Amino acid sequence: MDGAERMSLMPGSDLQGEIFANRDGWVGGKFSGTLVVAGRLVVSQSAEVRGVLVAGSMDVERGARVEGVCFVGPHGVEEWRRYRQAEGPE
Fold this sequence. Notes:
Blueprint: E1 2-4, E2 7-9, E3 14-21, E4 25-27, E5 30-43, E6 48-60, E7 65-72, H1 76-87
């Protein structure tokens, strides 16, 4: 998914890869990879997320499982880009 306005991963979903949303996002299922949300990201109690999360703001509900690197705030996307450049090709 690339450049969606809003995104929702419903409970029971299991996705891998990269997702980029221009506004807000909600995760209720399993996701592994890179998730970039320019606006607010909500990680619900049923969610299992691994990888890189980038968001303007983030709410993580009690019971949610998140593992990886998070870049949150008004400069989160820029910070993530610098991190990615510093990591270089694998």
